[in-house]
Amino acid sequence: MVGLLALVCAVAVGNIYFPQALGPLVAAALGTSPDKAAVVVTATQIGYTAGIFLLVPLGDRLPYRRLLVTLLAVSGAALLAAAMARSLAQLVAASVLVGVTTTSAQLIGPMTVGLVAQGRRGAVMGTLLSGSIGGMLLARAFSGALAERLGWRAPYLVAGLVVLCLAVVLARALPATTAAPVAAPPRVPLRSLPVQPLRLLRAEPELRRSACYQAALFGGFSAVWTCLALLLTGPLYGYGPQALGIVALTGVVTMACTPAAGRIVDRHGSDPVNLACFLAALAAAAVLAAGARGGVAGLVALVLGTLLLDTAMQCGMVANQARFYALRAGSRSTLNTAFMTCVYLGGSAGSWLGLQLYRHGGWLGVCVLLALLTAPGADTVRRARAAKRRG
Q1: With contact defined as beta carbons under 8 Å apart, do 108 and 128 qualify?
Q2: Which of 133, 151, 310, 325 has minimal CB crowding within 10 Å?
Q3: Which tens digits make up the pLDDT trace of 242-288?
């Protein structure tokens, strides 16, 4: 069952990231510029943020099977609608709906955590996240290769059919009910559910800290990957869309790193992993800056820099989720909603800022943005020193 749920996470997350490899082809087919076509990526992330905020809290109130199957079915239909889009506006609208409904991975995490002992949660989350990483990496490579041969609509069509098939499988494989929360939260009207994540953010400082750390990391991650397609397909490198997928595949190393990060969190807590992640992201900014030179040396720098950044972002996700999942057993979906809303708002802002800086400052401007977004790492150093003094 864990393997099936990891596969669903992979497909759901892949649907957010595979459009990153399609920007130049979408621009050529729909008669717009590549930087305007990149708005499709931002639109998907904005929709995903809205879906997390509005739909994921329902996981604390509704049976998981019904909710997951419904979201997958609507997401599959939205992907097919995107495949048939005749203008950039239609594609952006369909992408928003894809983002809103492809929140399955954010429901699977709280559901699975409730089924395992606290001492194994980090490892289990690391395993699920490995599935998500695999989906993210393969989605970019798959969409770039398929689009070069069959056009940009083909990845949307295939993704839509896969998601609909998974909806049918989950409808049969998932039990009608899952483990009940250890301590059920007070019942509130459904219309009040969107307010609950804000209340939890206000009440739980550790949730706010986790959200701040991960929003910064994901903002830098989104800025880099949104603009990397423009760099690789631009005049400096002159590659096709498939190149982005090939670069992304080097991040397969992170699939092995996240379970290890989860085990470290289980033994030593989240802060040591958070500090390592911010340091790795800062190093990634320096390495990625060398990609502005072009040529083989520049491409090697891009590969190594994205590998560092991907590892930092994904391991940070494990550490920060482990911290806040321990807060309120009966409100895990709502806690995850608050956390992931902040994270994807950070990602959307990072994607938009990255595009602006790329237009005016080129690739080096994006690298500077990534370096600035590692500033919250100073807080982990301060906390580590305070803990050492207390010890």
Answers
A1: yes
A2: 151
A3: 666 667 666 677 767 777 777 788 787 788 888 899 999 999 999 99
Nearest to 230 by CA among 87, 355, 92: 355
* Those residues with Cβ within 8 angstroms of residue 90's Cβ, 6 or more apart along the chain or in another chain: none
Q: Point out the least confidently predicted range of 26-30, 86-90, 202-206, 209-213.
A: 26-30
In angstroms, the CA 224 to CA 270 distance is: 25
* Cα gap 341→63, rounded to integer Å: 22
Q: What is the spatial distance between Cα 231 and Cα 235, in angstroms, rounded to a whole number?
A: 8
* Closest-CA residue to 100 (of 38, 154, 56): 56
Q: What is the DSSP string of 165-207?
A: HHHHHHHHHS-SS-PPPSSPPPP--GGGGGGHHHHHHHH-HHH
Tell me how far apart the alpha carbons of residues 303 and 244 are, in angstroms, rounded to a whole number: 10
Question: How far apart (Å, rounded) are the C-alpha atoms in residues 275 and 286?
Answer: 17
How far is 15 from 17, CA to CA, in rounded Å?
Answer: 6
The first and second tokens of residue 129, run together, are 């996240």
CA–CA gap between residue 391 and residue 389 (Å, rounded): 5
Number of CB atoms found within 10 A of residue 390's CB: 6
Q: Using the 8-state DSSP alphabet, how is residue 33 labeled?
A: -
Phi-psi region of 298 (alpha: psi -120 to 50; beta: other; left: phi over 0): alpha
Query: CA 384 → CA 81, 263, 269, 319, 391, distances in Å?
Result: 50, 20, 12, 15, 10
